[in-house]
Amino acid sequence: MxxxxxxxxxxxxxxxxxVVTFAFVVLRLSGDPAQIIMGADAxxxxxxxxxxxxxxxxxxxxxxxxxxxxxxxxxxxxSMRDGREAIVLVLERIPATLALTVxxxxxxxxxxxxxxxxxxxxxxxxxxxxxxxxxxxxxxIPSFVLGLLLVLVFAVQLGWLPSGGQExxxxxxxxxxxxxxxxxxxxxxxxxxxxxxxxxxxxxRTASAKGVAWRRVVANHALPNAAIPTVxxxxxxxxxxxxxxxxxxxxxxxxxxxxxxxxAVSNRDLAVVQCILLLVAMTMITANLVVDLLYGxxxxxxxxxxxxxxx
Length: 311
Known about the structure:
The chain is mainly α. It has 14 helices and no strands. Belongs to the binding-protein-dependent transport system permease family.
């Protein structure tokens, strides 16, 4: 198990380095931050002074080494817009993002898993067809389209809910529903597929042939085995708590990390963008590592494989 964990940690570290490197290079090749921040009418002397002040006049490999050295010392840089530390700007926005994504995650789990299980147990029934229609619709409709439709119906036509902002809990209803529906549809689809695969296994038929009650077969054999592939998508949902609301926050003018990322990218605020991407990468990697460890809990064969690898 120690080797198993060490291998995952090594892969996580390599992934983080690759993500940060990719973001670092792309951001610097996509435009001149000094020209964008200072404006087109700024005198060349002011633009050059800005580049010198922020180290943008150095070769890119020198900037890269300096950036990684700063990361290891705990310095994630400062915003080129207001001079504040990038990590402070990001941490200020995290509560607003979690206020959307955590309730949305609850909706995904509460709707998606039971719907997928029921659809598999009543395969080819009207319930199954209804669940699959919901899954296909929710999975294929882009979140910004769904968000705009909800605004059109419930904010513009009916006037029941506000269309954007963060003044009260009512402002969070539409973005939470927008995030929750798509995730619930995807989770229902994956859960149904996992359950159908397990229900077709020989040991399920053997247990039924021995006279074991169907409820016990489902609870003791089908659900635990179907949970293994379902845990993967649930882990992805946990990992995307920070990054999963980028589009929705923009649609509903919600002041979270996602909207900050969009603003920082358009302004070429390098330190803020890199800080957010680093945070997102670490969140996703941590979630994937937890999922890998849960596999060993849910499937004893994986623990046995890890012990053989160590031997």
